[in-house]
């Protein structure tokens, strides 16, 4: 009790003293409100003190009853036939139990709830009890929701539900203050229990309530009561027999306006976590896996969906749905002669979990990357990349091959027939709007290179371009190995060829071979030359004058 009631002023006003009555009455009336407020506060404190005293008395009586019962109780003997109401103390727990029905059984009373009941009963918590004041060792119960709603300093997540509480000795005392620990178990019909614990320290100050995660709370939520969450808020401590903690259900974390340093802390023992039916071995940080999921829904192994809220930016930022990074921090001496491959990610689409399963599928996509802008966007978008692949070399060692993108298709089944194989495919579609320029493939060079190739296709493959080919390079040709277009082998051209400059051949030149009956139109090929193989006197080289084919260097029409 800390509130003091202020005294009323004296002497009090009296009708026999009319000269001082008014002044004393005013002073007396002015003192009444603070007097009443202090009296009411002290009454509440007295009620709470009485409740705590009653609770302590109940605990003392419970302990006394147990002590009295223990005096007449003998050690449990499985060979003895006990009468109903007989008492015995358990060698396993040291507690006294009362026999419910006459009989004999080999099971210890602490494990035989059908025949034995623990003597004594928990103390009831009165309405308005402040749990800070309940420090007597023993068991307590708050059996109704209405009573629980009045209890002070209980866990926030408990709400107004019924609960039981145990008070333990937490390790002696210091400076006259006993260290005690409170453990609360919630009760709700048909629901799994929730458990909280807290401790009163040497200086008499209680810690915050901590909810305990156990196997029985796999389907329950963990409610963090603090307004500001310190790191770590939720930590799975490792089990030394398995190397990691594997909850039976799902883990959900949400917050609203909470300052968060770390919501989920993995580790303490082996720095790994397993979800679903997966096993996090010593070389796996996070393993997730399951089987037998519903085939009639769209299934996602991992679903990450983030969105920024509205607000004016003060700097440029990058928003990432995911970030995967693998780093190999070994020296050249560490690596030695072994091959080391570091992958940022390995993504595989398989039609079956094992190669022996059928795994029928209509389409497989190892990676599906997509960039989509909003229909409501009004500002200019500088770049949109469906996929952005980037090789960055900053070391001093040599690099044998650096490949920005590689497309690889392999058929490993002799009985498998693939209609079309495409290592790389590019497609551009404009369904609406305007596209100024479209490129199926476009590449540029920046810097100095010993040799540069725009395209390089090796092997006995045939390459087909269905559209027209425009080479804008203007390099002149002075030999068979110079110029904008260079062909190491021969060139077969099914149609006409027009040369804007001079034509030089280092070997024999053969013009078209015709007979007198197959001569082409002279008017269509004015100035062209041909050979007429069956002309009079033998084969003749002829030129068209626009009307007839004349023997070269003459005006004689070939015949």
- Fraction of residues in helix: 10-25%
- Give the tally of β-strands: 18
Strand order of the largest sheet: 5-6-7-8-9-10
Integer-rounded radius of gyration: 47 Å
Termini distance?
139 Å
Shape: elongated
Element pattern in H and E: HEEEEEEHEEEEEEEEHEEEE
How many helical stretches? 3
Mean pLDDT: 78
Largest β sheet strand count, sense and barrel closure: 6 strands, mixed
Question: SS-based structural class?
Answer: alpha/beta
Which residues form runs of ≥5 with pLDDT under 50?
Answer: 216-270
Percent in strands: 5-15%
Protein architecture, described:
With 559 residues, this protein is of the alpha/beta class. Among the domains are: 68-217, no CATH class; 226-280, no CATH class; 512-551, no CATH class. It is 11% helix and 14% strand. The protein is built from 3 helices and 18 strands. The strands form 5 sheets. It has a 6-stranded mixed β-sheet. A 4-stranded mixed β-sheet has the order 1-2-3-4, with helices on one face. A 4-stranded mixed β-sheet has the order 15-16-17-18, with no helix packed on it. A hairpin with a 6-residue loop joins strand 2 and strand 3 (96-99). The termini are far apart. The model is unreliable at 216-270 (pLDDT under 50).
Any descriptors?
559 residues; alpha/beta; 4-stranded mixed sheet; 11% helix
Gist of the model:
This protein is 11% helix and 14% strand. It is α/β, with parallel strands linked by helices and 559 residues long.
């Amino acid at each position: 009790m800390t509130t003091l009631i202020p005294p009323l002023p004296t002497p009090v006003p009296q009708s026999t003293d009319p000269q001082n009555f008014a002044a004393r009455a005013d002073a007396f009336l002015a003192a009444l409100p603070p007097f009443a407020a202090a009296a009411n506060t002290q009454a509440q404190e007295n009620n709470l003190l009485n409740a705590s005293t009653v609770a302590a008395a109940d605990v003392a009586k419970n302990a006394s009853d147990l002590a009295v019962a223990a005096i007449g109780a003998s050690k449990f003997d499985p060979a003895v036939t006990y009468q109903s109401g007989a008492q015995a103390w358990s060698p396993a727990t040291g507690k006294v139990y009362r026999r419910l029905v006459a009989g004999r059984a080999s099971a210890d009373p602490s494990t035989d709830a059908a025949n034995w009941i623990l003597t004594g009963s928990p103390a009831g918590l009165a309405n308005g009890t402040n749990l800070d004041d309940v420090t007597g060792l023993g068991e307590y119960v708050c059996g109704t929701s209405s009573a629980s709603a009045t209890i002070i300093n209980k866990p926030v997540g408990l709400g107004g539900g019924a609960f039981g509480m145990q008070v333990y000795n937490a390790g002696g005392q210091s400076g006259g203050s006993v260290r005690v620990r409170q453990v609360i178990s919630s009760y709700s019909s048909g629901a799994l229990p929730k458990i909280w614990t807290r401790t009163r320290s040497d200086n008499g100050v209680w810690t915050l309530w901590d909810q305990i995660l156990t196997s029985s709370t796999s389907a329950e939520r963990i409610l963090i009561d603090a307004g500001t969450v310190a790191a770590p808020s939720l930590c799975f401590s490792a089990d030394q027999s398995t190397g990691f903690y594997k909850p039976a259900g799902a883990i959900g974390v949400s917050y609203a306006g909470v300052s968060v340093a770390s919501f989920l802390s993995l580790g303490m023992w082996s720095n790994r976590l397993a979800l679903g039916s997966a096993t996090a071995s010593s070389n796996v940080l996070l393993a997730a896996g399951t089987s037998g999921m519903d085939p009639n829904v769209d299934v996602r192994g991992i679903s990450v969906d983030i969105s920024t809220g509205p607000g004016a930016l003060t700097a440029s930022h990058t928003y990432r749905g995911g970030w995967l990074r693998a780093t190999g921090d070994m020296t050249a001496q560490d690596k030695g002669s072994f091959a080391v491959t570091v992958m940022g990610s390995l993504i595989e689409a398989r039609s079956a979990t094992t190669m022996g399963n059928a795994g029928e599928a209509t389409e497989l996509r190892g990676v599906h990357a997509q960039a989509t802008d909003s229909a409501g966007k009004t500002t200019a978008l500088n770049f949109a990349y469906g996929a952005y692949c980037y090789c960055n070399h900053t070391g001093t060692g040599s690099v044998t091959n650096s490949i920005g993108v590689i497309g690889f298709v392999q058929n490993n089944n002799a009985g498998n027939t693939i209609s079309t194989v495409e290592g790389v495919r590019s497609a551009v579609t404009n369904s609406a709007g305007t596209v100024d320029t479209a490129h199926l493939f476009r590449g540029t060079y920046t810097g100095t290179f010993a040799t540069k190739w725009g395209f390089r296709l090796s092997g006995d493959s045939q390459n087909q371009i269905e559209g027209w080919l425009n080479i804008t390079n203007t390099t002149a040709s002075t030999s068979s190995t110079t110029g904008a277009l260079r062909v190491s082998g021969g060139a077969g051209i099914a149609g006409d060829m027009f040369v804007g400059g001079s034509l030089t051949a280092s070997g024999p030149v053969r013009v078209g071979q015709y007979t007198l009956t197959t001569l082409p139109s002279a008017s269509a090929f004015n100035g062209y030359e041909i050979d007429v193989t069956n002309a009079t006197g033998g084969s003749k080289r002829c030129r068209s004058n626009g009307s007839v084919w004349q023997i070269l260097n003459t005006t004689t029409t070939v015949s």
